[in-house]
Design goal:
The structure is a single chain. Helices cover 16% and strands 20% of the residues. The protein is an alpha+beta fold and 89 residues long. Strands 1-2 form a two-stranded antiparallel ribbon.
Amino acid sequence: ICAHGTVPYPAPAMFAMMPGVAVRPSSGIGELVTPTGLAMLKGFGAHFGPWPEMQISSAVNVFVPGCTFDNVPNGTRFLLGRPLPQPVE
């Protein structure tokens, strides 16, 4: 609910950004990801799914927001890496 009444979740703009994003159900009530957060991830070229094989090259950052949901891990880890060299056959 917002100042303009009930808004569907995900909101239409958020829903339009979600093709290709892996999702799963949650019992949390509230916004698990913001439109700005998803736009930034997609803008940086994030891939959604299992971690790729890579060699960590430098940055490791952890972001933990102020809100929490029961029984839900809350935080994001950012790593900068390079693809592993392919073995020569």
